[in-house]
Amino acid sequence: MHAMKALVKERAEPGLWLVDVPEPVLGPGEVKIRVLRTGICGTDLHIRKFDDWARQTLTLPLIVGHEFSGHVVEVADGVEDIAVGDLVSGEGHLVCGKCRNCMAGRRHLCRNTIGLGVHRDGAFAEYLTLPATNVWVHRTPVHPDVAAIFDPFGNAVHTALSFPLVGEDVLITGAGPIGLMAAAVATHVGARNVAITDVSDERLNLATKLGVSLALNVSRDTLAEGMRRLNMHEGFDVGLEMSGNPAALRDMIANMTHGGKIAMLGLPAADFAVDWSTVVTSMLTIKGIYGREMYETWYNMSVLLEKGLDLSPVITDRFSYEDFDTAFNTAASGRTGKVILDWSA
């Protein structure tokens, strides 16, 4: 058995540990991948902190991480259309293939989904194995850094493309990496105004680099003031809630036009009150979003990049995997874009 380096949640306490573990062994229908880059996600921060969610969800020890890019090094017998040397990313939601939704081709709605780096060993390692059905081959050239963030980019694309955006006024609450990518998508596909809110000036500055109409710091300015600056009178047509913050959703609901549509990706930490009477009287649609559509979202992502969407401003920090502690602290600061770990050395 060969050993490899991996970031492991070894003990039921805060922290992650860089240790030697056995290389994964290729199973039937699987692909083995040499990891090049990984992205740090909010989920990984929860696991490192070992909060209530992590305590209830994880079986330890566990190799964490689910955002990655890498080269295929081995392919199981019978796997077609994936070759050694291919640059790949991976869909981190593994579905059962047997439930009603899977059988109907709605795999993103599988009731039995398990998560890479949450329910099974993940991508913060030199090698990982994944079912071939979860491997996305990059058929057009893409930088390994960008390929590593296809999972969160997919969250952004799935959310942004939930409702038609052409010519619409779009409000995005939360300028974290996924909010920033959603803003880039909304601008790219032809929304009229794209307003994004946050309380971090650093993140709002990144948003201006991506071409938004308005980046509003809601610790200083109101949405009403933002709408005045955009010369808007009737409220937003489409809302993308990316923060999980109760005030953000309440603010959004209060500033939607009648018949407005809201897609919610941000995961609240606790229950909170919502002004349901406004939802009813303004005839709003609220849609929950989780993960990516398999594999419609992946096609959308590849095509958007092919057509000139530039995600490079969203990636703000790069570290060697050996400096994972500094990288995680940077990601946890809430002031940066996407943080990448390099495993290629």
Automatic annotation (TrEMBL):
Active-site annotation: T43, H46
Catalysis: reaction(s): L-threonine + NAD(+) = (2S)-2-amino-3-oxobutanoate + NADH + H(+)
E.C. number(s) listed in UniProt: 1.1.1.103
Gene behind the chain: tdh
InterPro entries (UniProt xref): ADH-like_C (IPR013149), ADH-like_N (IPR013154), ADH_Zn_CS (IPR002328), GroES-like_sf (IPR011032), L-Threonine_3-DHase (IPR004627), NAD(P)-bd_dom_sf (IPR036291), Zn_alcohol_dh (IPR050129)
A cellular component term, taken from the record's GO annotations: cytoplasm
Residues the UniProt record annotates as site (Important for catalytic activity for the proton relay mechanism but does not participate directly in the coordination of zinc atom): D151
Protein name per Swiss-Prot or TrEMBL: L-threonine 3-dehydrogenase
Subunit structure, interactors included: Homotetramer.
